[in-house]
């Protein structure tokens, strides 16, 4: 992969080249046994739970993901703050915005 160093001394890689690299890296991963295609790896940063429901907050890169699940599911997963986890998103609508 070709890169340059910008005026702020950050490494810069062309977007199209980075996209090819990312796609190849994902394709090299073992297949998941899920139909969810939107997957983000992150870190569990906060958990709020009561006797029935729990809220799990994750940071996946610069993104904050919040999941509501049963407290039983949380217990089954054994999640705690500081754990690495994957957030899998399956939705009927995914909106993409150009930045």
What is the radius of gyration computed over CA atoms, rounded to a whole number of angstroms?
Answer: 17 Å
H and E order: EEHEEEHE
Looking across the biggest beta sheet, what order are the strands in? 5-4-3-6
The gross shape turns out to be: elongated
How many E-type strands? 6
Unreliable runs:
none
Give the DSSP E fraction (strand runs of 2 or more residues).
35-45%
Helix content: 10-25%
Structure characterization notes:
By secondary structure, the chain is an alpha+beta fold. It is 20% helix and 38% strand. Strands 5-4-3-6 form a four-stranded antiparallel β-sheet. Strands 1-2 form a two-stranded antiparallel ribbon. A hairpin with a 3-residue loop joins β3 and β4. The longest helix is centred in the N-terminal third of the chain and has 13 residues. It is elongated and about 55 Å long.
Which short descriptors sum up this protein?
four-stranded antiparallel β-sheet, two-stranded antiparallel sheet, 99 residues, alpha+beta
Summarize the structure.
This protein is α+β, with helices and mostly antiparallel strands and 99 residues long.
């Amino acid at each position: 992969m070709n890169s340059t160093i910008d005026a702020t001394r950050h490494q810069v890689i062309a977007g199209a080249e980075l996209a090819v690299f990312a796609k190849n890296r994902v394709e090299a991963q073992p297949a998941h046994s899920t139909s969810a295609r939107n997957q983000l790896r992150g870190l569990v940063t906060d958990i709020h739970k009561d006797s029935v429901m729990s809220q799990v907050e994750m940071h996946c890169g610069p993104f904050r993901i919040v999941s509501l699940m049963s407290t039983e599911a949380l217990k089954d997963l054994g999640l705690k703050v500081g754990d690495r986890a994957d957030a899998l998103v399956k939705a009927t609508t995914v909106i993409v915005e150009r930045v």
